[in-house]
């Protein structure tokens, strides 16, 4: 099985529990005051829903789908819009991997590496648009 297949299956196990996205934002916001501040006025229920799709976009791009949607996310996150600093993306990834470890009963260090490999090109597109 390819890394992308492993990651699709892992994401399916994680998404079965809605708390996955709530826990992700708890971890992510705990990683820095500046990040918590960015979400001060955000409707977090809506944001959790949007993230569910955002992670799917990262995975579909790794599978070869057009990167247009990620370029749009790069635009909304860039210095002229949400102003998301490039160094915050590693905190985002760490929070996601931590949440996957807690939620996926089949989690292994190898699966973590598969996730990192699959997420990287998509994160690079969004961060690179800064
Ligand atoms: C909004 C995904 C990284 C902060 C969004 C949206 C999506 C998304 C799908 C809603 C659509 C939009 O407004 O364009 C992602 C993905 C990321 C990522 C896939 C990683 C590759 C980050 C990081 C931060 C961040 C590192 C740092 C704080 C925000 C904020 C909003 C947002 C502040 C708008 C919230 C609001 O409407 O109040 N993100 N994001 N994102 N994201 Fe991200």
Automatic annotation (TrEMBL):
InterPro entries: Globin (IPR000971), Globin-like_sf (IPR009050), Globin/Proto (IPR012292). Residues 1-130 form the Globin domain. The keyword RNA-binding does not apply. The keyword Iron applies. It holds the Pfam family Globin. Keywords: Heme, Iron, Metal-binding, Oxygen transport, Transport. One of its GO terms (molecular function) is heme binding. Coiled coil: none annotated. Belongs to the globin family. This is Hemoglobin-like flavoprotein. It comes from Marinobacter oulmenensis.
């Amino acid at each position: 099985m390819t890394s992308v297949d492993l990651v699709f299956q892992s994401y399916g196990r994680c998404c079965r529990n809605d708390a996955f996205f709530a826990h992700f934002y708890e971890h992510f916001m705990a990683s820095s005051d500046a990040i918590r501040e960015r979400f001060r006025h955000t409707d977090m229920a809506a944001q959790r829903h949007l993230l569910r799709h955002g992670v799917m976009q990262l995975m579909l791009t790794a599978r070869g789908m057009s990167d247009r949607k990620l370029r749009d996310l790069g635009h909304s996150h860039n210095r002229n819009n949400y102003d998301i600093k490039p160094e915050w993306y590693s905190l985002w990834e760490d929070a996601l991997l931590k949440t996957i470890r807690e939620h996926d009963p089949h989690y292994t260090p190898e699966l973590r590496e598969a996730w990192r490999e699959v997420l990287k090109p998509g994160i690079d597109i969004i961060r690179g648009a800064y």
